[in-house]
Amino acid sequence: MGQSAGQAAQEAVSLARVRRRDGIALIQAHRASVALHHPWTYPFTDVPGFEAWYAQTLDGSNIALLARERSSGALAGLFTFSQVVGGCFQSAYLGYHAMAGCEGRGLMTHALRLCVAYAFAELGLHRVEANIQPDNTRSLALAQRAGFRREGYSPRYLRIGGVWRDHERWARLADD
User: Fold this and answer.
1) Neighbours of 104 (CB within 10 A)
2) Could you tell me which residue ranges the N-acetyltransferase domain spans (predicted)?
3) pLDDT (tens digit, 9 = 90+) per residue, 63-106?
């Protein structure tokens, strides 16, 4: 019995926590992906930017996962859980972006599903929330494919590229 396209794509992706040694590869991938990222996100593209971002992942309240295409080792995407809170809240915000050359092949869909499974099983979270700009149709579709549900709309929610931007609020619950 053959694999479905979905199973093949999922097995084609690996996830790992970001390490300092990933910095140069991430910087290069971000530089190559500027046209894909802007105006939705403006990730670091230099060593000081990486170091500042990476420092935020060391205290446990922000956790970054790197998705790689297994066959080539190419960076497929970056996922960041921020404001990870335990206790009675057990929730985090999730930000993500694809890397140029890996978009449109199902890799991000399966990487996002793996990230959400990690959040629930390994981090013990109950809720993962993603806030997405309404015109970012690819990111909205990705969230839907990964089982997120739209919960609301937040005007002028995040300042991105120097502009306060509206966002749709999407979430997944552990028992969804």
Assistant:
1) 9
2) 13-175
3) 999 999 999 999 999 999 999 999 999 999 999 999 999 888 89
- Supply the mean pLDDT for the chain: 92
What would the pLDDT profile of 37-48 be if each residue is shown by its tens digit? 888 888 999 999
Locate 130 and state its tokens.
């993603």
Ordered domains of the chain (ranges, CATH): 5-173 (3.40.630.30)
Region for 135 from its dihedrals, namely left if φ exceeds 0, alpha if ψ lies in -120 to 50, beta otherwise: alpha
Angle between helices 107-121 and 137-145 (to 10 degrees): 50
Q: Which strands make up the sheet holding 63-69, listed edge to edge? A: 13-17, 63-69, 75-85, 91-98, 127-132, 163-173, 149-160
Pairing of strands 127-132, 91-98: parallel
Global pTM? 0.90
